[in-house]
Design brief:
alpha+beta; about 325 residues; 8 helices; about 45% helix
Length: about 325
Amino acid sequence: IYLCASIILKWDALESASNKDISYLNKVFSDTVRLTLDQYETTLDVTGKRLAASISKGKQDALVHTLDDILDDNAQLAGFGYFDVDGNMIVGDSNIDKMQMPNLLKFEKSRDTFKAALESSNLIPGLTYYFDQVDSWIIPIRKSIHVNGQLSGVMTAGLLPDKLVPDLQKMETLDETKKYIFVLIHDDTYITSFTSGFDDKEAIKKQYETPYPDELVDIHISMVKKLSGLSLDEFRRGEHSINYIAPDEGWNLQFVSVTYIAKYRMWSVVTLGLFDLLPELVISALIYAITFIAVFVIIYLLFRRNYRSIENNQNTLLYQACHDPMTG
């Protein structure tokens, strides 16, 4: 009973500590993502307006070097491009071949988010895709540009996923015995925008191109609604955070911390597999077991010694009672 109780108490302590860790990591992760997107929303707006002014004067090509300079100062970005309202590229940085750029209103990966950018004043993150011209996966970000109150075009840039969160490596190794996974998921489509923890190219490709299974999404939504006591729309409006246990795509249970980034309609998620806690739990169980056995053996030996002492005393008294010390 003692051993079982000790293991249960240890598991409760590990679970509590793990929930605190992923809550902290998710706050840092979601805040960093939000601040990064806010920063580039301003960058795209200012740059886009400068380009729109130059384009109206037929001098857009002169700003290519300006775009290159901005890229040099922003290691998180892979490229810049200014598009008209019909989805055609007008000008981009020197890394991009304008003739090879697709029409963003016709390109499957960009169609919906480009339309959303045209209709919104906020920065719109697009679906992550592999961009051959920069030989990397990118997270497209788009911002509509208005000049004198009129929609002029859309400024677009590509964020490099592996540089989205500069301190991610430190966050991933908060505890070297555990593997924390950081994920950004587009709302509605439930397609991954960013994920850590994958090195295999095919696994990364699957993450960025395949929506989460409906049954898995339903489980997570159900947990969010149940534990928060809110409808999904209410949860989204309040930018709440919540922790729970749910399966991953391989149906392995994991600790999950979820935050909704309302402005950019994205779910920030940090997970930790339950199996990551087993080594520490097993070590603790062994320590408890060894301690229990050692204490039991010590008590047994003391009891045995005491019993023999009592037995010897009884035998001595019995002998003395049965024999006359004068005659033997």
